[in-house]
Amino acid sequence: MKFGPFVATPLRTALLFLSAATIVCGQQPFQTLLVGVDHRSVTSLNGDWHYLVDQAPAQALYAANGAINDKTYALNEHPNIIGRHNQEYNFATAPTIHVPGDWNTQVPQLFNYEGVLWYQRDFHFEPRINTRTFLHVGAANYRSHVWVNQKRVCDHEGGYTPFDCEVTGALHSGSNFVVIAVDSTRLRDGIPSVGIDWFNYGGLTREVSLVTLPEQFIDDYDIHIAHGSHFDPAAAITGYIHVVDAHADTAVTIRIPELSAETTVSTDAEGMARFSLHPASLTLWSPDSPKLYKVEMISGEDHLSDDIGFRDIRVDETRILLNGKAIFLQGANMHAEAPVRGGRANSDEDAHILFGWLKDLHANFVRLAHYPHDERMLREADHDGILVWSEIPNWQEISFGKPEVYGKAQTLLREMIRRDRNKASVILWSVSNETPNNTERTKFLSDLANEARHLDPTRLITSAIIGPRIENMKAVNNDPLCDALDVIGQNEYVGWYTLTPEEADGIQWVFPQKPVIMSEFGAEAKAGNHGVVNQRWTEEQQVYVFEHQFAMLRKIPQLRGVAPWILMDFRSPTRNIPKLQDGYNRKGLVAEDGTKKQAFFLLRKAYSERSIGKAE
Ligand code: GCU
Q1: Pocket of ligand 1 contains residue 490 by CB under 6 Å
Q2: Which residues, given as ranges, of the chain have pLDDT below 70?
Q3: SS3 of 533, please?
Q4: Closest Cα partner for 76 from 97, 98, 51, 58?
Q5: Structure letter (DSSP) for residue 480
Q6: Nearest to 190 by CA among 256, 114, 293, 125
Q7: Per-residue pLDDT at 233
Q8: Which of 561, 574, 584, 596 is most open to solvent, judged by the fewest CB atoms within 10 Å of its CB?
């Protein structure tokens, strides 16, 4: 799926999603990403699904030549008890597992399972005339193949972004069934690739539902305040609404009741309707006043609303300006792991707990590492006034030399931006984390950064750069990738992986003249493990590392944000010191059971005093 120069029209984007689903049966089911689907009324397919494990080499899913088998479990047939031998599988009598959710923390035997698992459930459906129905999947890790009533309707690669498959032609009145095969196997040419420092939870990790829409429907929209060369508090609200299969000159109305603002515009030949609104007064969104407005979009039979905040984000030399004012970002990193219960985070309760800790920390910022998190997290950030760094998982070693891998990265980037472009909280799109500084990588990521800027010129583009070698107490970031970034993310672990905590005091950082966010720093501590400050794995030493970090950070003139690694301890297959790690990365400020470590309170004090850095 090699792309020419990319012109981000919704039709072209829809075609890209479509081409990803060239399915066997002639009529190519439409595959897209429905923006704002969490604001639509849907038929939830969450709940208990039957499952079957298809252990490597997963012969039920993959034919010998690697092609997808449409004639095995997808048919959902049942073994003959009388008569000739037919099948040796049966979903009807198979155990069940809950969706949404990873299989690893639900079925003890599957805790360390990476491979193919087949899901199946029945559902009742009554088709309505002049409507189309999509099967919506919030996320499925890592590769997934979907059949409805034995018809393959779509395939998707990428474990952290949603996809929507048209199933209109596959459904019938009465009882229907869906079968989804999910393969969580890590791929060298995957994104992420094979070596990751987080737990590879497999399965249908986010919600699954049926979405029924009119024949012409809104699948994408972009609603923001105009982003001119300078911040203008009176800027218009502008953007586009895309209506699938709309004829030219189809009317589209955008209404913001609270602002008594409304306009009706027409679609062009590609179903695109561009608009501008000039509300008399507008409260801009910010951490201090996270104001959201209900925005209604109407076209023909389709009526969709969303809760959107309006704000302006830009850089000015080394400053980050939110609504024209310089801002300092103080926050933390976060993995999408559920507090206390563990497993993939995907519920409102998970979001409330995690963001509750951020608010308790006096944070105004969170880096959602290293992949797009559940949409609930972004809604929570919008609601709570927490600024967001969102990232695609180009984590460390990626096959940067392969065009097909670049294609995967582009698709992930487009999916991330498309789903969350209307979230005021998101201010930074990150294209990668700690990747090796070589020509192939820099070309790959610079192209991706430019594409992100093209897709969304209203936000800042960043990446987390790996810690440089420190020579003569000097840390110089001269990574060429920084040329393609608006804001530089810098990871470093002085006092933990390199040097001693105290030596941080004497380090001088050298950066290009751009805003810098220290996007990772910290140390490991097992909650409740106490000792002297130079005793590793103790809460006291974690605090000690941070204290010396603060001394170092305060000397960096370009520093405009900090995000310690990490809010909560999280599972990782590479962390195997018994009694200290037990399969967890212990750099959290909070333990996985919710116990706040001493470092949490140190950060909270520093953030309440806003004592780590300056906005200008
Ligand atoms: C890296 C990386 C994280 C990892 C962390 C650590 O910098 O970006 O994903 O978990 O360091 O080593 O704890």
Answers
A1: no
A2: 1-28
A3: coil
A4: 51
A5: G
A6: 114
A7: 93
A8: 574
For tokens 């006034």, what's the residue? 385
Residue 474 near residue 441, CB atoms below 8 Å: no
Cis? peptide before 287, omega within 30° of 0? no
Spatial CA neighbour of 412 closest among 466, 451, 438, 439: 451
Is-contact 464 431, C-beta < 8 A?
no
Q: How far is the CA of 395 from the centre of ligand 1 (A)?
A: 10
CA distance 332 to 568: 9
CA of 458 to the centre of ligand 1 (A): 29
Residue 368: which residues within 8 A CB-CB, separation 6 or more? 334, 336, 377, 388, 389, 390, 391
In three-state secondary structure terms, 614 is coil
Q: What is the pLDDT of residue 533?
A: 97
Q: By the 8 A CB rule, do 243 and 275 touch?
A: no
Ligand 1 pocket, residue 357 CB under 6 Å: no
Decide whether any atom of ligand 1 lies within 6 Å of the 565 Cβ.
yes
pLDDT in tens, 498-538: 999 999 999 999 999 999 999 999 999 999 999 999 999 99
470/480 Cα distance (integer angstroms) = 18
Written as one string, the DSSP assignment of 131-157 is: EEEEEEES--BSEEEEEETTEEEEEEE
197 CB within 6 A, ligand 1:
yes
For ligand 1, atom 10: residue with the closest CA: 197
CB 435 near ligand 1, within 6 Å: no
Per-residue model confidence (pLDDT) at position 315: 98
Any ligand 1 atom below 6 A from CB of 542: no
Q: What is the DSSP letter of 392?
A: -
**For the CA of 497, the nearest atom of ligand 1:** 12
Q: Which residues contact 490 (CB under 8 A, 6 or more apart)?
A: 464, 465, 467, 477, 509, 511, 516, 517, 518, 519
Q: Is the CB of 425 under 6 A from ligand 1?
A: no
β pairing state of 487-491 and 460-465: parallel
Residues 6+ apart with CB under 8 A from 430: 367, 389, 390, 391, 392, 461, 462, 463, 464, 489
SS (H, E, C) 63-91: CCCCCECCCCHHHCCCCCCCCCCCCCCCH
- Of ligand 1's listed atoms, the one at least distance from the Cα of 433 is 8
Residues 497, 541: contact at Cβ < 8 Å?
no
* Secondary structure (3-state) at 615: coil
Cα 346 to Cα 105: distance, rounded to the nearest angstrom = 13
